[in-house]
Design a protein that fits this description.
By secondary structure, the protein is α+β, with helices and mostly antiparallel strands. The chain has four helices and three strands. It has one domain: Reverse transcriptase/Diguanylate cyclase domain (Alpha-Beta Plaits, 2-Layer Sandwich). Strands 1-3-2 form a three-stranded antiparallel beta sheet, with helices on both faces. A hairpin with a 2-residue loop joins strand 2 (about 95-100) and strand 3 (about 105-115). It is flat. The chain has helices at about 10-20, 30-50, 65-70, 70-85, and strands spanning about 50-55, 95-100, 105-115.
Length: about 120
């Protein structure tokens, strides 16, 4: 005799918790921790396959002025818009993340160009 139990709700809750732990709640972008994981994987893959990894850090100039003069809702709206524009600008395998409180989204990508690793 077997017992069947539907664990769909439990699995959905686990998935939501995992997403909340790894993503910025405002922009939905991966957070610093998840970015680090993706970057480490990209670096390992690049070393194995003699590829190049590029990391680009973006910071919004005078972001504090926007928050101070227009309010935090305007600053939040700007961050959401920046995230929405950056996501489609990179390949699926690339990562755009929210690095810190003042925005600093960043991208990591593995280039298809072969290169000699520099030590």
């Amino acid at each position: 005799m077997g017992v069947f139990s539907d664990i769909t709700v439990l699995k959905q809750a686990e998935k939501r918790l995992r997403h909340q732990a790894d993503h910025d709640p405002l922009t939905g972008l991966p957070n610093r921790s998840l970015f680090h994981e993706h970057l480490e994987r990209a670096l390992a893959h690049a070393e194995r396959n003699r590829l190049v990894v590029a990391a680009l850090f973006l910071d919004l100039d005078r972001f504090k002025e926007i928050n101070d003069s227009l309010g935090h809702p305007a600053g939040d709206s700007l961050l959401i818009q920046v995230a929405a524009r950056l996501r489609p600008a990179v390949r699926h395998e690339d990562t755009v993340a929210r690095w810190g409180a003042t925005s600093s989204p960043c991208c990591s990508r593995t280039s298809t160009t072969s290169a000699t690793p520099r030590r």
